[in-house]
Amino acid sequence: MRRAARTVVAVLATTATLSFVAQPVQAHPQTKTLRSAAPRDLRIGTAVAGGGHHVEHSYPDPFTYDRPYRKVLAKEFNSVSPENQMKWEFIHPERNKYNFGPADAIVKFARQHGQAVRGHTLLWHSQNPAWLNEGTFTKAELRSILKSHIFTVVGRYRGQIQQWDVANEIFNENGEYRQENIWIRELGPGIVADAFRWAHQADPRAQLFLNDYGVEWPGVKVDAYETLAKELLAQRVPLHGFASQAHLSMRYGAPDQLAGVLQRFDDLGLKTAITELDVRMDLPEGGVPTAEQLTTQASYYKTALDACLAVDDCNSFTIWGFTDKYSWVPVFFPAEGAATVMFEDFTKKPAYYTLRDTLARARR
Ligand code: XIL
Question: What is the pLDDT of residue 282?
Answer without folding.
Answer: 98
